[in-house]
Design brief:
Blueprint: H1 26-31, E1 38-40, E2 43-45, E3 51-54, H2 57-60, H3 69-81, H4 93-102, E4 112-116, H5 119-136, E5 144-148, H6 157-162, E6 179-182, H7 206-215, E7 219-224, H8 240-251, E8 254-258, H9 272-276, E9 282-285, E10 297-301, H10 303-312, H11 330-345, H12 348-364, E11 372-378, E12 381-386, H13 394-405, E13 408-409, E14 411-413, E15 416-419, H14 427-442
Parallel strand pairs: 3-13, 5-6, 5-7, 7-8, 8-9
Antiparallel strand pairs: 1-2, 2-3, 4-10, 9-10, 11-12, 12-15, 14-15
The structure holds pyridoxal-5'-phosphate.
Length: 444
């Protein structure tokens, strides 16, 4: 067990109380802490020296594997050269270089990049860009946002309004008004489907129903994750995203892909946009952009939308009243640039595409276990849903603790285990992940 008080550098009980942990059961954790001390490549290490395979790339961030020296050296050098500069009215070369490097990967035409510090900030930023574009075009009445059940769009107030997971919403009152949710795409007939399901494209017509009910001319934007990630890997039914694109075009609605998880190779292509052959108007990203080594997110925007806003601004005045003190932070840009080099050098996206079929087979091989209720997979992401026991989510929570104790880290949501290893994973890593999950699920 790696959670004893005496072990390694796990702090004493009295030292664990002050840090209020995010999205965590604080009382339980502080009774039985499960800590990490260091990480390298595909593995985490506990304070008492146990080695755990990282089956969720930390939290979908660490595409290139942990502790890449190229990144830490770049960040160190940057902090010794230019540690900080005001991002408003002043520039530094790293921000411009990283934006240029990022647009080598975004879909053609999506070549304007607004930097932020997290996925949540990228979502709220995209909402503001959408509102601003419509206002400048003389369509300020477009204020409704459409999202989807089971969606996760971060935790800022805009993202919470878009959210489709009840626990992320229920405590926070009415929040933003004017946000409506399409049905999710988890149809019972699509259980145990590998990749994109054949059925369910017609669920995109929910958007049409909202156009008919609220007036398509009043809708600003539709937000979807190309594959719902945090809820537990829901790939889009074939034709679903195309249909959303079509309805958006017919009604002048902006389509936003939230690619905070699906971006940067996770779907086997640069972004979900390319994997599914549908180009949005705005695209949010974070996580693997810096390999998780520095906090950073971004919104990629079609040039014509950037032009709409900037052309309308005064010659010497601010065009878009939005930005963060740490937007395009020099250290985050340095990490991002180093990561762009790694994407090329390590062929991370090609590797993800090549490994995906093997990964899918390994995950679906767990289907015979009696506790498994569904398995979904696409690219280098999969979810194994277990039958609930002891209330929704209780069994999933218990399993992720058992897995930690059996030397595997993953993210669980409710009763779904989400597997999304670093894109450097070799076949033997995939095998190790599958066999450790099998061991634990066989105990139940
Ligand atoms: C699709 C999506 N959007 C937004 C976010 C929020 O990102 P962050 O936690 O960096 O704020 C996440 C986080 O997992 C996400 O999966």
């Amino acid at each position: 067990m790696g959670h004893s008080d005496k072990a390694g550098k796990t702090p004493a009980q009295s030292q664990l109380q002050q840090f209020w942990m995010p999205f965590s059961p604080n009382k339980e954790f502080k009774r039985e802490p499960r800590m990490f001390e260091r990480a390298e490549g595909m593995y985490f290490y506990t304070p008492d020296g146990r080695k755990l395979i990282d089956a969720s790339a930390g939290l979908f961030c660490v595409a290139a594997g942990h502790c890449r020296p190229e990144i830490s050296e770049a960040v160190y050098k940057q902090l010794q050269t230019l540690d900080f500069t005001a991002p408003f009215l002043r520039g530094h070369s790293g921000a411009f270089e990283l934006a240029n490097r990022v647009v080598e990967y975004t879909p053609a035409g999506m070549n304007r990049i607004f930097f932020v510090n997290s996925g949540s900030e990228s979502v709220d930023t995209a909402m503001k860009i959408a509102l601003m574009v419509h206002r400048v075009r003389g369509q300020a009445q477009r204020q409704i946002f459409i999202s989807r059940e089971r969606a996760y769009h971060g935790v800022n107030m805009g993202g919470v309004a878009l959210a489709g997971m009840v626990n992320n919403r229920r405590a926070y009152g009415v929040g933003l008004g004017g946000v409506y949710h399409m049905r999710h795409t988890a149809l019972p007939e699509n259980k145990f489907v590998k990749g994109q399901p054949e059925t369910g494209a017609e669920l995109a017509d929910d958007l049409l129903r909202f156009c008919n009910l609220y007036g398509g001319e009043n809708i600003a934007a539709v937000f979807v994750e190309p594959t719902a990630g945090s809820f537990g890997c829901l790939p889009p039914p074939k034709g679903y995203l195309n249909r959303l694109r079509e309805i958006c075009d017919q009604n002048g609605i902006l389509l936003v892909f939230d690619e905070v998880i699906t971006g940067w190779g996770r779907m086997g292509e640069n972004f979900g946009a390319q994997a599914f052959g549908v180009t949005p108007d705005l695209l949010t990203m974070a996580k693997a952009l810096t390999n998780g080594a520095q906090p950073m997110g971004a919104v990629a925007v079609k040039q014509e939308l950037y032009d709409v806003i900037t052309d309308a601004g005064p010659e010497r005045g601010i065009e878009f009243f939005h930005g963060y003190t740490y937007s395009a932070h020099p250290a985050a840009c340095a990490a991002g640039i180093a990561m762009m080099d790694i994407f090329k050098k390590d062929r991370l996206i090609d590797r993800a595409r090549e490994m995906s079929p093997y990964f899918a087979e390994a995950m679906h091989s767990l289907r015979d276990l009696p506790v498994v209720a569904d398995i979904r997979s696409i690219g280098m992401m999969a979810a194994i849903e277990v039958a609930p026991a002891g209330g929704p989510g209780a069994r999933g929570h218990d399993i992720q603790k058992r897995l930690y104790d059996k030397a595997l880290h993953l993210k669980s949501t409710g009763d779904s285990l989400i597997i999304a290893p670093p894109l450097i994973a070799e076949k033997h890593h995939v095998d190790e992940i599958a066999s450790k999950i099998r061991d634990v699920l066989s105990e139940l």
